Amino acid sequence: APTAQVFYPLFWHVSLFAVVHLIGRMMAVSVRAKLLAADSGKQLTAVRTLLNSICDDVVEIDSGLRLTRHSPKLSSILLHGPASSLQGVALNELMHSEGDRQDFARRMKTGSEAATHADVFHTRLRDSSGTSVAVELFSVPFRDLNDRQGHILGLREFTDIVPLVPLQRELPQTSVPLPGPVVQQLWN
């Protein structure tokens, strides 16, 4: 039985070492995941902040292309009114034409496969009266903490139509006539 006296303590020491090592490894993986999630969250916040500075609205869509939250600005742009929620609506259903829907779906799929790739493109949405609303979309794909694919989209209304009448510059209205050099400076 001398082998049993040596074997059992050795077995328990090795087992205890293995359990402590396993728990330490699990804690390290957990801390790393939390740090990566925090960093990823900061990056998404930076993307949203940047898009908010140049776009009319920033929305998020899931892998089914559905809006994940209510967006009062998008509702207003599409003349639904800010109280009318579009949460859960597939954004491609709001596209003006079948061609726009297909192009949007293709771009979202391509962006999902290349997660480091951002895309900018023009498309047309349909407002509540059926009128086409030209928008520029800035698309940034991402994966959430549960590894689900999504996109952050910046929307900006745009028009490529030249105004029919050029803007007229008017002189400021004053009660005292302005001297010639001041008038010349205002026009230059």
UniProtKB/TrEMBL annotation:
It comes from the Eukaryota. This is PAS domain-containing protein. The chain crosses the membrane at residues 6-24. The keyword Ribosomal protein does not apply. InterPro entries: PAS-like_dom_sf (IPR035965). The lineage of its organism: Eukaryota, Sar, Alveolata, Dinophyceae, Gonyaulacales. The keyword Transmembrane helix applies. Keywords: Membrane, Transmembrane, Transmembrane helix. It comes from Alexandrium monilatum.
